[in-house]
Specification:
This protein folds into 2 domains: 2-72 and 405-430, no CATH class; 86-400, Aldolase class I (TIM Barrel). The chain is 36% helix and 21% strand. The chain has helices spanning 39-46, 55-63, 74-81, 119-133, 152-168, 186-195, 210-226, 246-258, 279-295, 338-344, 365-372, 382-385, 390-394, 404-421, and strands at residues 2-3, 7-16, 19-28, 34-38, 67-68, 88-94, 138-144, 172-179, 198-206, 237-243, 265-271, 318-321, 326-328, 345-348, 427-430. It has a 9-stranded mixed β-sheet with strand order 11-10-9-8-7-6-12-13-14. Strands 2-3-4-15 form a 4-stranded mixed β-sheet, with helices on both faces. A two-stranded antiparallel ribbon has the order 1-5. The radius of gyration is 23 Å and the shape is globular. 33% of the residues are buried. The structure holds iron/sulfur cluster (2 copies). One iron/sulfur cluster binds at residues 375-376, 379, 381-382, 385, 387-388, 399-401, 405.
C-alpha cells in the first residue's frame, strides 16, 4: 500500500487536558473525506511502515482513498470514471458572450446581442430533439443575460417549451440565471421565478461600483422580504463579491446578516489583484471572508469537492448557445480568436444534428492530459480542479489555477475546526 497522490495534509496541535499532541489532518481529493491521525502515525504511513498500526485505521484510510494499492494508476482511474455516460444535459444560453460561469477566470467585456428572429423556434426544436433522442433524465438550463427585461419574452417562450417537453417526458428540469442585480426588481423576479421557473440567481457585486452594488443589495433584500418562498425552494442567490478591500466585503456580509437572509444566500469572493498584492494575499483575504460569513451563520462550503471535469467546456453533455444559434463547447467562445472558435464549434441549432462535431479541442482535454501530461497531470489538486480554464490556457494567458490552490491548507484547518465544533461525524479521528 502507498499514500494516494491526491491528498492534502496540514498539521495541528491538539490539546487534551494537560497533554498536547501534534496531529495531521488528511483530506482525500478523491473521496472528499477527512481523517485525522497523530503525526507519528502519519510519518509511518508516509514511509509505508504499517507494522503495529490499528487495522481499523488502515481500513478507514483505504475506504477514504488515502491509502491505495501499490501499482494502482490513480490517473487512469480518474480518466475511466469520466468515461461514464451521463443521462443529463446542460445548456448555457449566452446572450452576452462572456462566461463568468463560476471560475471568474475569463470575464470579458460584455456586449448586448439580439438573438436572430428564428432563435426561439430553432432552439426549442433543437432541445426537444436532443432530450427525446438521447432519452435524457435531467436538463439544466443557465441563462446569461445582463438585463432580463430585454429578453423576457424570449425567456418565457423557451421556458414554457422546456417545461412542456420535460413534463411530458418525465425529465427533471432546473434553471438558473446569471444577471446584473440592479435589473432584478421584485416584479422581474416574480416573472422569472413563476413563469421561467428560475430558482437560482448568480449575481456579481462589484464594490468599485458603489451605486450599482447598493441598488442590487436593495433589490435582493426586498425580494427576500416580500416573496412568498417555500422552505423547499432552497438557496436562491449565489453572490460573488468582487473587491480589493476586505472591509467592503465584511460590510456586505453584515447587511445580509442583519436582514437574516442566511438560508437564502451563499457567497463567493473575488479579490482583485493590483501591483502590490500577491496570489497568497488574495487567497488569505478569501479565507478570512469565508470564515466571517460562516461566523455570521451563512452556509458556505469550505473545502472544494471532487469535480469530474474542469468546466462545461470539456463535458460532452454541456453546450453553450449564442444569439446566432451557434453551439460551442465553452461558454465564452464567441469573443475568442477565430482559430480557438473553430476548434471548439459544435455546429448550429438550425443544422441537422447529424452534422454536429462533438470531438472539439476542449472536449478532448482528458486525452490531452493523459497523452501529453501537462503540469496538471502531476498536480495533487486535479480531482478538485480538473485543470482550470482551458480558454485562458489556450489564449496563452495563464494556467488559470483556482484560488483554493493558494489557501487549501487553511481551508482544511477551518473545515476541521468548524466540523469539530459542530460535532460533525464526517471527520474520523485516530488519536
Ligand atoms: S489548473 Fe492549477 S490547480 Fe488545477 S490541476 Fe492544473 S495546476 Fe493544479
Ligand atoms: S474554458 Fe470553461 S471556464 Fe473557461 S471560459 Fe470556457 S467554459 Fe468558462
Amino acid at each position: 500500500m502507498k499514500l494516494s497522490k491526491y491528498i492534502i495534509t496540514t498539521s495541528i496541535e491538539d490539546a487534551k487536558e494537560t497533554v498536547t499532541s501534534k496531529m495531521t489532518i488528511i483530506y482525500s481529493c478523491l473521496s472528499n473525506q477527512t481523517i485525522v491521525v497523530r503525526d507519528e502515525v502519519f510519518q509511518k504511513i508516509t514511509n509505508e511502515d504499517f507494522y503495529n498500526l490499528d487495522e481499523r485505521l488502515i481500513t478507514e484510510l483505504q475506504n477514504s482513498r488515502i491509502l491505495i494499492q501499490n501499482g494502482n494508476d490513480e490517473f487512469v482511474e480518474l480518466y475511466d470514471y469520466d468515461k461514464v455516460t451521463n443521462d443529463n444535459i446542460s445548456l448555457f444560453v449566452n446572450l452576452i458572450e462572456s462566461c463568468r460561469s463560476g471560475c471568474n477566470s475569463c470575464s470579458k467585456n460584455n456586449t448586448i446581442s439580439r438573438p436572430k428572429n428564428d432563435f426561439v423556434n430553432s432552439i426549442n426544436s433543437y432541445i426537444e430533439i436532443e432530450l427525446i433522442k438521447k432519452n435524457l433524465k435531467t436538463f439544466f438550463l443557465t441563462w446569461k443575460i445582463d438585463d432580463p427585461t430585454e429578453f423576457i419574452e424570449t425567456m418565457i417562450s423557451i421556458s414554457e417549451s422546456n417545461l412542456r417537453i420535460t413534463d411530458m417526458n418525465d425529465i427533471y428540469y432546473a434553471s438558473s440565471l446569471i444577471c446584473e442585480g440592479e435589473f432584478l426588481t421584485e416584479k422581474v423576479f416574480a416573472m422569472l421565478f413563476n413563469l421561467c421557473m428560475i430558482k437560482k440567481y448568480h449575481i456579481t457585486l462589484k464594490c468599485s461600483n458603489y451605486e450599482s452594488t447598493e441598488i442590487t443589495i436593495k433589490n435582493i433584500l426586498s425580494i427576500l422580504d416580500n416573496f412568498p418562498f417555500r422552505p423547499q425552494d432552497g438557496i436562491i442567490f449565489e453572490l460573488t463579491i468582487k473587491s480589493d478591500k476586505i472591509n467592503d466585503v465584511f460590510n456586505i456580509i453584515d447587511k445580509f446578516s442583519h436582514a437574516e437572509t442566511q438560508n437564502r444566500i451563499t457567497f463567493k469572493f473575488d479579490f482583485l489583484k493590483n501591483n502590490d498584492t500577491s496570489k497568497d494575499e488574495l487567497a488569505e483575504n478569501e479565507i478570512e471572508c469565508l470564515f466571517y460569513a460562516i461566523e455570521k451563520g451563512f452556509i458556505q462550503s469550505i473545502l472544494p469537492t471532487r469535480v469530474n471535469l474542469p468546466c462545461a467546456a470539456t463535458d460532452q453533455n454541456s453546450l453553450s448557445v449564442d444569439k446566432n444559434g451557434n453551439l460551442f463547447s465553452c461558454n465564452a467562445l464567441p469573443l475568442s480568436t477565430p482559430n480557438i472558435i473553430e476548434n471548439n464549434l459544435i455546429g448550429n441549432v438550425s443544422d441537422d444534428v447529424r452534422i454536429h462535431v462533438h470531438s472539439t479541442k476542449f472536449r478532448n482535454w482528458m486525452l490531452e492530459l493523459r497523452e501529453n501530461k501537462p503540469i496538471c497531470y502531476s498536480c495533487n489538486l486535479l480531482p478538485l480542479c480538473g485543470g482550470g480554464c482551458l480558454l485562458k490556457r489556450e489564449e496563452g494567458k495563464s494556467l488559470g489555477c483556482p484560488t483554493f490552490k493558494y489557501n487549501i491548507e487553511d481551508r482544511l484547518l477551518v473545515s476541521y475546526l468548524n466540523q469539530k465544533s459542530s460535532l460533525n461525524e464526517c471527520i474520523v479521528s485516530y488519536y
